[in-house]
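Hi support team,

I've been running sequence recovery on a batch of backbones for a student project. Most finish fine, but this one hangs at about 90% for roughly twenty minutes before it completes. I'm not sure whether the input is malformed or the queue is just slow. I've pasted the structure tokens below so you can try to reproduce it. Let me know if you need the job ID as well.

Thanks,
M.K.
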């Protein structure tokens, strides 16, 4: 299961993910992290069988949690330039029979590389 974790000024300074992994025995895979001195956002993958235990611990430590159930999406600004296709590490994007870029959402690991290279800012993660 994928989760977006938000840390505030207090929680961002604590080794919360490490403590949670040690105490629960869960292998928590960090897919993306944007952490600063006053706040942070981290996308993690947690094994399904450990998710309840991990989430309870994170909540107790003051972390804001959002389950990610939707994958990468795009809006009408997409010009099908292919920048996303060339940067994606898991081949989410492909050229369909109409010679347009299409999405295999199930392959997305939420790394955000495609969002950074999109010249029209058409790609986003719906939450």
């Amino acid at each position: 299961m994928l989760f977006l974790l938000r840390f505030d000024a207090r929680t961002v300074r604590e080794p919360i993910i490490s403590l949670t992994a040690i105490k629960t025995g869960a292998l928590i895979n960090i897919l993306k992290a944007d952490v600063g001195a006053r706040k942070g956002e981290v996308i993690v993958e947690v094994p399904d069988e450990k998710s309840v235990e991990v989430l309870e611990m994170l909540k107790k430590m003051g972390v804001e949690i959002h389950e990610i159930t939707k994958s990468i999406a795009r809006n009408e600004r997409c010009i099908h330039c292919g920048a996303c296709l060339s940067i994606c590490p898991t081949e989410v994007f492909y050229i369909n029979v109409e010679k347009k870029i299409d999405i295999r959402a199930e392959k997305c690991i939420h790394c955000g590389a495609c969002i950074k290279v999109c010249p029209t800012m058409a790609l986003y993660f719906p939450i």
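--
Follow-up from support: It reproduced on our side and the slowdown came from queue contention, not your input. The longest strand covers residues 29-35. No action needed from you.
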